[in-house]
Specification:
alpha/beta; CDP-alcohol_PTase-I; six-stranded parallel sheet; Hydrolase family protein / HAD-superfamily protein; HAD-like_sf; five-stranded parallel sheet; HAD-SF_hydro_IIA_CECR5; single chain; 371 residues
């Protein structure tokens, strides 16, 4: 294990927020740049809604004085629940740099690749935030949140009368109009878990109804509709001192119950880190940010980058994913978030261990520009 500690370098002041077109934003990338960076968010650059580990200063150093990006980077997180455009604005405000929506890759971002299959089919989406809005912005035409869907079935949740907070949440929702079809008689063609569900009991009940009936709750057993999870983290680091149960824990609960009440085991697909697809997709996105920096085939074979750095705090998600993805990924583990596993894992050891994201960026810049 290598632990890296170096002194800070004076940082440039953050530039003022301006609306920049992507072409202009990335037009001044340095021609010699042959690397990129992927940052995890929770426990690495933010804890709750507060920057940690010198993240604001570290990110500022990736821009030049005019606000143009010097080093291509993106945020690669299993979190989500809101559109990438809104998350980019939120990150910009919290971190003091201008983040574009294309620089935010959330756990559910790959769901947009399923648009051709389900664009005009009835689908349900669940999770904290605005799951139906997320899917609508991806282009899905007939999507309902699980809150909305359950409201069309009387008594589908037998304890709903005790959940006054659920009633208030539904009554304040205004992003969707009344569907032009009869929800209770139309078959659900797919279910999507966008982010960590809020009401586990209700969601498990309704998803079991949908999945074991073939998409029509209350009917006889039918073929299970496809089920997709944006990520499969068992735990994650949030604002609370110890880790919180994540989407993977919800998946385990749903699967355990479904398999006890149905004759066939639950079928599902999970996305998110450490899936190698996520890292390959991130590589493709980063390469679009730096058209002038693409390496020649003689330098790096088929890869546009000599090195891609994954900076994360979860060994079994961030580090495992980067190591499984292989070249050109280089894994850096930070310990700022105090994630209980934030130390080198014997099976998936990080290439570098640091205390803060600022130390990680300092190491990268010195390694790339001064080595």
């Amino acid at each position: 294990m290598t632990v890296y500690r170096i002194s800070q370098i004076k940082n440039k002041a953050p530039f003022s927020f301006q609306s920049l077109q992507a072409s202009r934003f990335f037009s001044q990338l340095q021609p010699k740049c042959s690397f990129g960076i992927a940052f995890d968010i929770d426990g690495v650059v933010l804890r709750g809604r507060f920057p940690i580990g010198g993240s604001s200063r570290a990110l500022t150093r990736l821009y030049d004085d005019s606000g143009s990006l010097k080093v291509p980077f993106l945020f690669l997180t299993n979190g989500g629940g809101i559109p990438e455009s809104r998350r980019a604005l939120e990150l910009s405000e919290l971190l003091g740099v201008n983040i574009l929506p294309s620089q935010v890759v959330q756990g559910h971002s790959p769901f947009k690749n399923l648009l051709k299959r389900f664009e005009n089919e009835l689908i349900v989406a669940t999770g904290k935030g605005e799951p139906a809005l997320v899917m609508s912005e991806y282009g899905f035409k007939k999507v309902l949140s699980l809150d909305e869907y359950a409201s069309y079935f009387e008594n589908i949740d037998p304890v709903s009368q005790y959940k006054t907070w659920t009633t208030e949440q539904v009554s304040t929702r205004s992003c969707h109009s009344v569907p032009g079809y009869i929800v209770s008689s139309e078959r659900v063609k797919a279910a999507f878990v966008i982010s960590d569900p809020v009401d586990w009991g209700r969601d498990i009940q309704v998803l079991c109804d949908i999945l074991r009936s073939g998409g029509l709750p209350g009917r006889i057993n039918g073929h299970q509709p496809p089920l997709y999870f944006a990520a499969d983290d068992l735990e994650y680091q949030a604002a609370f001192p110890s880790e919180r149960l994540g989407m993977g824990a919800f998946r385990i609960a749903l699967e355990s119950i479904f398999n006890r009440i149905h004759h066939s085991p639950l079928e599902y697909v999970t996305f998110g880190k450490p899936n190698p697809f996520v890292f390959k997709n991130a590589e493709t996105i980063l390469s679009q940010f730096m058209p002038s920096c693409l390496a020649t085939k003689g330098d790096t074979g088929s890869y546009p980058f000599k090195t891609l750095y994954m900076i994360g705090d979860n060994p079994m998600v961030d580090i495992k994913g980067a190591r499984q993805a292989g070249h050109p990924w280089f894994s850096i583990l930070t310990r700022t978030g105090v994630f209980k596993g934030a130390d080198n894992h014997p099976e998936f050891p990080a290439d570098l261990v640091v205390d803060t994201v600022e130390e990680a960026v300092d190491y990268i810049l010195k390694r790339e520009f001064y080595s």
